[in-house]
Amino acid sequence: MYSINELVKITGIPASTLRYYEQVGILPEVKRSVNGRREYNEKVLEWLELVVALKDTGMSIEEIKSYTELILQGDNTLDVRRDFLTEHKKNVEIALAKKQYHLEKIIRKIAVYDVLLYKKRESSGDLLI
After folding, report:
1. pTM of the model
2. What are the contacts of 90-94 at 24+ separation with CB within 8 A?
């Protein structure tokens, strides 16, 4: 079991965010000790890693909450959950393709500047590169 402070150190997620995730139902299975302190197990840690992956790939908190609710409904939502993640995967792939396209434009522009700078140095007699 991990305390909230230990989970903060492991994940880098602020305690306030962890409490918020619990409040909105994204971390639904957080246990409490006899003195009321939050206790996180490996299952919660693994789930939190997925939440971070979903969030970092553009899924909104509301969508993550909807996905969490589907999980809590049990195995009768397996197909819906798979479709949900498949759709998100497609969106991530589209976003990655766009970023790759833009990155290639930036790389080409840098190459143009490299050529221009080289020509400028060459014409000025400054051969130190």
Report:
1. 0.77
2. 91/58, 92/57, 92/58
* CA–CA gap between residue 58 and residue 2 (Å, rounded): 28
What distance in Å separates the CA atoms of residue 129 and residue 118, rounded to the nearest whole number? 8
CB 3 within 8 A of CB 9: no
Question: At 66, is the pLDDT very low, low, confident or very high (cuts 50, 70, 90)?
Answer: very high
How would you label 15-40 residue by residue, b for 16+ Cβ within 10 Å and e otherwise? eeebeebbeeebbeebeeeeeeebeb
How far is the C-alpha of 83 from the C-alpha of 80, rounded, in Å? 5
Neighbouring residues of 39: CB distance < 8 A, sequence distance ≥ 6: 1, 2, 3, 30, 31, 32, 33
Residue 53 carries which side chain, given as an amino acid letter?
A
- 86-117 pLDDT, tens per residue? 999 999 999 999 999 999 999 999 999 999 99
Q: What does the pLDDT read at residue 33?
A: 84
How many separate helices (H) and strands (E) can be counted in the chain? Answer: 5, 2
